[in-house]
Task: structure prediction
Amino acid sequence: MSSAPHPLGSSIRSLMEEYQSIANNLANVSTAGYKRQVNTFSRHLIEKLGDAPASDPPLAQILTQRATDFSQGTLVATDRSLDVALQGRGFFVVETPEGPLYTRSGSFQVDGLGHLTDSRGRQVAGADGLIIIPPDTDLQALQISSEGAISANGVPFGRLRIVDFGEEEGQLRPVGFGAYKAPEGILPVEARDVQVRQGYQEGSNVKLMEELVGLIGVSRLYETNMNLMNRSRELTRTIMGIATG
Result:
């Protein structure tokens, strides 16, 4: 006869997910434009774990719901003409064969055909189409206005497309390398309350000490739940032994 899953199993899995999120945040503490992943906890009876008698341990259920913290990161000066950061709500748009992706990372470059691309080689969308910078352009002479208009020596090359998802921002799904995908039916609008800062990169919004404190808390909760599971199993074996004795 197969045994039923232990009721604490879901809590332990949730704690492992939280641990993985914290580890990923710590690994990206220096990644430009990175937004920390958070798990919102729903805890029941956790505060009673320390007072529970060994013979009757309560079941502690920990449920998590993953989300992205899109709060503003600190702007770091790089003085590179193709580094741009967003101050305020909004996302750059990059084009892919699978559809547009959205990112806060503005470390751009120009490919051999003159297309403005991100660090992964994906073409950066302009407000009126792709942005093409002629090969003979002195990149050090590029100017990017606070509205995202790109020019050099008075010659305009287009304007960055910057979008906002408003209250639907939390629906974006991370797809790696600082990019996000919008679920079907969720459409952005042109960002209004945002400024483009040339020569800057937006730093990660991960707070190192906060993540380390969270890591300690998760480790303690994991240990507590494992102890509860072991005590519950021992109690079950004792009861089964009495019943069959």
